[in-house]
Amino acid sequence: MKSKLKFTVLIATVFLFSCFQEKKEKYTATEDIPVSLEMIAELTAPPHVPKPVGKRKAKKLIVKMEILEAEGEISNGVRYVFWTFGGSVPGSFIRARVGDEIEFHLQNHPDNKLPHNIDLHAVNGPGGGAESSFVAPGHEKVFSFKVLAPGLYVYHCATAPVGMHIANGMYGLILIEPEGGLPPVDKEYYVMQGDFYTAGPNGERGLQPFDMQKAVDERADYVVFNGKVGALTGDGALTAKVGETVRLFVGNGGPGLVSSFHVIGEIFDRVTVEGGSLVNENVQTTLIPAGGAAMIEFKVDVPGSYVLVDHSIFRAFNKGALGLLNVTGEENEKIYSGELMDNIYLPEGPGIQRMPTTSEIKESDIPAKSFEEQMKFGKQIYGQTCIACHQAEGQGIPSAFPPLAKSDYLNADVDRAIEAVLFGLSGEITVNGEKYNSIMTAQMISQEEVANVMTYVYNSWGNNKTVVTPEMVKKVKEKKK
Ligand SMILES: [Cu+2]
Predict the structure, then answer these.
(1) Which residues are known binding-site members?
(2) Residue 392 CB coordination number (10 Å)
(3) Most CB within 10 Å of its CB: which of 45, 98, 229, 353?
(4) Residue 338: its pLDDT value, please?
(5) pTM of whole model > 0.70?
(6) By C-alpha distance, which of 95, 65, 231, 71 is closest to 157?
(7) How remote is the CA of residue 344 from the centroid of ligand 1, in Å?
(8) How far away, in angstroms, is 292 Cα from ligand 1 center?
(9) From the CA of 147, how far away is ligand 1's center (Å)?
(10) 252 C-alpha to center of ligand 1: Å?
C-alpha cells in the first residue's frame, strides 16, 4: 500500500514537472500566459501587504475596490476630508503576478459626492484604465486587463481636477510579481508618501479644507507617510528583529513633491530603481518620483529605532515625513557600539524645529474649553515638542535631560517652570537631587499651548496636578518684559 502511494506520487511529480517545463517553453509572450481559475484578490490597508503570490499560476484575479470619501485626522487635532481607494491613504495594496488577468471592479460608494476613476500604471491601455472606469456615486464599473510586466506601480484617481483628487489621498500601489514570486524576506511593509495642502498652516486645529492655490504652488503644509503625521510612530511604528530582512514597498503619490527616501541608520542592500527591473545596491537615499515607487530591501543588524524620512529634511521634522522602524534583539558591538539612535538623534529634531525665527506666534482660533481638552491638546504638544528630550513618560535622560516626572523642581514653582518653557533655561539646576547643567531653548509655542502642555505635564506622572491657564502664562510673560 505504502509503496503504491509512493509510486503514484512519483508519477504525479514527473507529470507535473514535465507540464511545467512544457509551459515555460511554450509561452514566451506574457500576454499568452493562460489563466486558470478565478480568485478574489486580497487587499490590505497600509502598512500591511497581502500574502506573496509565491509559485501560484496566473489567474483571473478579481479586484473589488471601493471608493470612500471620509473625514479623518491628518495630524493630532487637525481634520481633513480624505478621498480614498478602500478607506485608507494610501489606498489598498494590490498584489498580483505577471500573466494574471485582472478584472477590476471600481465601486463608488453611494454616500460619496463626486465621480472618480482609476489609472493604474501597471495597465497597458488608454488612461491606464481611467477611461473605462469613470464611475458616479452609487455605481460600479468593471474593466479588465492582462498584467504584462513585473514591477511596483502606482495607481491613482485621474478625474478632473486630477491634482485635487490625488492631493486628497487617491493613490496606492499595485505590485506585480514575476513568475515564481519575489525572493522571500522576513518582513514586508507598505509605505507611501503624499503631500497635503490645507487652508490653515501646519498644526492649525479643526477641519481644514483643501487649498488649491497652495497645491498649484507646491507649498505643502503636510508631507506624510501613510496619510497622517505620525502614522508610522508610536503604536504604528514598523517592527523587525535583529537579523531579519525587511522589504519596504515605498510609493510616492505626490501630487507635487519628489521624495528623497532615506532610513536613518540603514543602508539599503537592494533597491529596485523606480520600481522597475534595474537593481541598485548599497544605496543611502533613493529618489521616489511623484507617481513612482521603489522596492527597498535591507537586513537589520543591530537593535534601535531607525527613522524613515524624506531627506528634504524640513519635510521630516516640520511637516510630518517621518516614521519609525523599531528593531529589537541582541546588540552586536562589532557592527555598532554606542548609544541608541533614539537618544542621539531625535533631540536635534525639535531643537531645529523650534528655533526662533519670529517673535510672532499665532494664538489658536480654537482654544481648549475644558480640562479634558487642555490635557488632550497638551499631550499633542508634548508629543511634538518636549518628548524628544524629556522622553515619553517624562523620565528624561540621565545627565542630559532632567525628568519632568515627579520633578521637585517643577512642582516647587509653577511660574519658574512656565518661564523655562517660554524663555528657555540654562545654567546649573538640581532636579530630584541630580545636577543638570545644560540648555533648553525657548519653546516656540503659543501661550495657550504652553498652558496646555504644562497642565498635561503637571497632571501626569505623579506631579502635583496644577492647572495652568493661558492667563497665568500671560502674566509670567509680561512680568519678564
Ligand atoms: Cu477621484
Answers:
(1) 116, 121, 156-157, 165, 170, 311
(2) 9
(3) 229
(4) 61
(5) no
(6) 65
(7) 43
(8) 18
(9) 23
(10) 17
Name residues of the chain where pLDDT drops below 70: 1-28, 337-361, 481
Fold exhibited by the domain 30-179: Immunoglobulin-like (2.60.40)
8 Å CB contact between 220 and 197: yes
159 CA → ligand 1 middle, Å: 5
Q: Ligand 1 center to residue 149 CA distance, Å?
A: 26
CA 169 / ligand 1 centre spacing (Å): 9
Domain with CATH 2.60.40.420 in the chain: 30-179, 188-328
**Residues of each annotated binding site for Cu cation:** 116, 121, 156-157, 165, 170, 311
CATH number of the structural domain 188-328: 2.60.40.420
Distance CA 340, CA 325 (A): 13
What's the CA gap between 63 and 31, in Å, rounded? 19
State the distance from the centre of ligand 1 to the C-alpha of 84, rounded, in angstroms.
8
- Measured in Å, residue 276 CA sits from the centre of ligand 1 at 26
Give me the amino acid identity at 181. Answer: G
Instruction: Say which residue the cell 514575476 belongs to.
Output: 178
Q: What is the reported pLDDT for 83?
A: 97
Q: Identify the pLDDT of residue 15.
A: 45
Residues in the chain: 481
Q: What's the topology of domain 353-480?
A: Cytochrome Bc1 Complex; Chain D, domain 2 (1.10.760)
